[in-house]
Write a structure and sequence with these properties.
This protein is an alpha/beta fold. Helix content is about 30%, strand content about 20%.
Amino acid sequence: MEPTTIMLRWTRNITPPLLSLVLLLVTAFAVAAQSGRKPPKPPKSPDPLPSKQEEPPIAPQSEQKSTPKIPVKVVWQSYAVSSSSIYARSVLESCLDELSKSGSVTASTNAKELNRKEAIDIAKASADTHVVWFQLEPDPAYNDRSGIGSIPAQYLIVTFYVFTPTTGKTKASGRVYQRPVGPGGLPVPGTGTNGYYSLEYAGREMADRVLSALGLGRPH
């Protein structure tokens, strides 16, 4: 039985003044008892999880700086008026095509024929352009010394020079002989006037030699 109830029953036989005092004591006792109770502690909140560290964004790979292409100008001159310009242009177009496949040079040409001195002057006037000058000459094996009529295409060889920019000095030179080819462009043994001789081949080989002189690899 609660102490407060016992005390109330006991106070029935007590006089009013004394009863007031007793009630006052009972109230004080109850307040003291309540004040002695500690309020329950609130539940402890769990420790906050550490914030997930965001991974640094992947930096985009830096674009490879493209190597500047080497400007190359290819010019030509016919050996003699009797030689058709179609032959020289065949060599020229094949050379330009092969140079462009390399991806390392910017190939261009001139609208008209130029002699060797004019080609050197172009190289001297440029700060970065190599000038390739070539001409078609008769192969020493050509027996017709009369100089009458056009020289047969199969008896033409390519003589070329590479002139450096600014100085106009000769960087490389050489001769390219045609080779007999059969069906599919495959070379066949032997020489003579009955085979099909490729001026296009001569142009491609000249381009490969120019690339080699510039320290560049041949196109695949």
